[in-house]
Design a protein that fits this description.
The protein is α/β, with parallel strands linked by helices and about 450 residues long. It folds into 3 domains: about 130 residues, Rossmann fold; about 230 residues, tm_1862 like domain (pyruvate-formate lyase- activating enzyme, Alpha-Beta Horseshoe), CATH 3.80.30.20; about 60 residues, OB fold (Dihydrolipoamide Acetyltransferase, E2P) (Beta Barrel). About 35% of the residues lie in helices and about 25% in strands. It has 13 helices and 19 strands. Strand 1, helix 1 and strand 2 form a beta-alpha-beta unit. The N and C termini lie far apart (about 55 Å). The model has no long low-confidence stretch (mean pLDDT about 95).
Length: about 450
């Protein structure tokens, strides 16, 4: 039986998809990269914001059309959308054969087999704690880098976020399980590990009674074959001095931190139920840069949170321009039913949210432009991603760039390189958010 899988949303969802693919493969299913002719298509959905929900529904509708045309047989919907709109999926899409919550992902192979051999529709949505934290995976990333999920769920309860309801309370994965998988990944050729969780810096608090991310990083650095270790989704209030020291002294841990701050006005931060103040976040950034002058900090901000008046937005814009982040994303507040912010007073008009986001991103473009120009003439180690025959150049990433979200470096070389190799590249020019370089061996 042939099964295709469409995974939407964040890297954490992607890891869930990879564990499902491995379970299906081990059950004897043929995994196909296309949906045409598939006996079953699984749609692993995201439901973090309205845009993600719309994307999920559009994919369901696409599969419904293919099913009605006889191109595919069965449709299985999994992931976060099932947790939030389980009844709606089955009632509004009668062509959907199964709606499976994330707590049943570990049973996906048996459930798909049941779907293909029975006429009844299936609905399975057990507690989220049933989601396996450590299972075999069929990687969908290139063979030389992989995500490594160290926890799932979230207990921060930010006022705008439905993740605690969708994913459940924060659950750290035992360190032994993480290290075992990391060793297996390294043995298979993975050179860059990207640690992910809803809150990476909270790792260990629930399981061991204390923050254990620094200890985990030290242990991961001892695994042969791993060259780069990158962290995403770090919360500022849990970036400890010990963590900074590990980043500073362990050469495998990249001087790169994804630090979603969300806002810089204290009144809005308090309304968001975010811990810490703008001054404390500013002090942390200064501490990070003092310890590691070459550190690259990525952050995310939200515009249009309820109560965000002109003064609050001005504080945010001033913070963005003062801090000069290396990487920054911005999205408009999206009210999620069931969250405290959904019906808060002071809702902001959609066009105002978008306009404020455009202002921030225009400011950020100028900041990145200046930072990239300052990198011209410097040499960086680059991880080769691919060769572009049309442009006659290689495409890769430096330590400054996480895959799929940050920039690239385009460089020429007379050498023959394979994806996954490391090359020293001299930066000679810039290209919007990207860099242009030349192989040092050619100089």
């Amino acid at each position: 039986m042939r099964v295709g899988l469409i995974s939407l949303g964040c890297p954490k969802n992607q890891v869930d998809a990879e564990t499902m693919l491995a379970a299906l493969r081990d059950k004897g299913f043929e995994i196909v990269d296309y949906v045409d002719g598939a006996d079953a298509v699984i749609i692993n959905t995201c439901a973090f914001i309205d845009d993600a929900k719309r994307e999920a529904i559009e994919n369901i509708l696409d599969m419904v059309e293919l099913k009605n045309e006889g191109v595919i047989r069965k449709i299985v919907v999994t992931g976060c959308l099932v947790q939030t709109q389980r009844e709606e999926i089955l009632s509004e899409f009668p062509e959907v054969d199964a709606a499976i919550g994330i707590g049943a992902d570990g049973e996906i192979a048996d459930l798909v087999e049941k779907v293909l051999t029975a006429d009844d529709r299936i609905f399975e949505c057990p507690d989220q704690s049933g989601l396996p934290l450590g299972s075999p995976r069929l990687l969908t990333t290139p063979e030389y880098w992989a995500y490594l999920k160290i926890a799932d769920g979230c207990s921060n309860c930010c006022a705008y976020c439905a993740i605690p309801d969708i994913r459940g309370a924060y659950r750290s994965r035992p360190m032994e399980s993480i290290l075992e998988e990391a060793s297996q990944l390294a043995a298979s050729g993975v050179k860059e590990l990207i640690l992910i969780a809803q809150d990476t810096t909270n790792y260990g608090a629930d399981l061991y009674g204390e923050l254990r991310l620094p200890e985990l990083l030290r242990a991961l650095c001892g695994i042969d074959g791993i060259r780069w270790i990158r962290m995403l989704y770090c919360y500022p209030d849990k970036v400890t001095d010990e963590l900074i020291e590990v980043m500073r002294t362990e050469h495998k841990v990249l001087h790169y931190m994804d630090l979603p701050l969300q806002h810089a006005d204290d009144r809005i931060l308090q309304a968001m139920n975010r811990r810490g103040t703008a001054a404390e976040n500013r002090a942390l950034i200064e501490k990070l840069r003092l310890a590691m002058p070459d550190i690259v900090i990525r952050t995310t901000f939200m515009t249009g949170f309820p109560g965000e008046d002109e003064d609050a937005f001005d504080n945010l814009a001033l913070f963005v321009n003062e801090m000069e982040f290396d990487r920054m994303g911005c999205f408009a507040f999206s009210p999620q039913e069931g969250t405290p912010a959904f019906d808060m007073d002071g809702q902001v008009e959609d066009d105002v949210k978008r306009h404020r986001g455009e202002i921030l991103m225009n400011d950020q473009y100028s900041i990145v432009e200046d930072k990239n120009l300052a990198r011209v003439g410097k040499t960086y180690t680059v991880l080769v991603e691919e060769y572009d025959a049309y442009a006659d150049c290689y495409i890769g990433r430096t330590y400054m760039d996480a895959p799929e979200i940050d920039g690239m470096i385009y460089f020429t070389s007379t050498e023959d390189y394979e994806p996954g190799e490391y090359v020293d590249v001299l930066v000679i020019d810039t290209k919007e958010y990207d860099l242009v370089g030349r192989d040092m061996l050619d100089l």
